[in-house]
Amino acid sequence: MDWTMYLETERLILRDWKDEDREPFAAMGQDPEVMRYFPGLLSRQDSDALVDRAIAKQSADGFCFVPVEEKATGKFLGFTGLSRPSYPKPLPFDPCVEIGWRFCRQAWGKGFASEAAREWLRFGFATLGLEEIVAFTTVTNLKSQAVMRRIGMTTHSRDDFPHPMLDSDHPLVAHVLYRLSKEAWAQAAA
């Protein structure tokens, strides 16, 4: 299912990965504030491997986490998209399609994550025909949870889970799960 990814919003372009995205993406992975809710910083090798996995997912699934570019400047802001999680240990709600995002600090507080995520929800439900899209993060990542709520996702404490890839005593192990059904998305869009 090899095809080009290109979505547009009022201020953003969501598109395929390019080689020139690797440098600013690697810089994000070395920023302690950007990576605050992840187990650690990403080496350049790990960052490049993440891009390579995203490209492979695009080829296999027809979607992945892709770069977000500011229309007005052409600047790389981060990434957003849909993905089928593929951890070595399963998530308690597998199989699923998740929506996710990560932006450079200069892009924070401008509504870019919500704007890009809304377009991905539209693509996931209207184009791909998904029945549900999920998002998850550590319980302490309140800003990301605020984006999840802004785009219409809801959570319930019964869905909270320990991330299977983290040790039980890791400070980020406790995660919250947000969900959005196609039906709820369609009702909100109407």
UniProtKB/TrEMBL annotation:
The protein here is known as: GNAT family N-acetyltransferase
Gene3D superfamilies xrefs: 3.40.630.30
- Organism of provenance: Roseibium litorale
Which Pfam families does this chain map to?
Answer: Acetyltransf_3 (PF13302)
Taxonomy of origin reads: Bacteria, Pseudomonadati, Pseudomonadota, Alphaproteobacteria, Hyphomicrobiales
Which region is the signal sequence? none
SUPFAM superfamilies recorded for this chain? Acyl-CoA N-acyltransferases (Nat)
* Record-linked InterPro entries: Acyl_CoA_acyltransferase (IPR016181), GNAT_dom (IPR000182), N-acetyltransferase (IPR051531)
Q: Which residues form the N-acetyltransferase domain?
A: 12-183
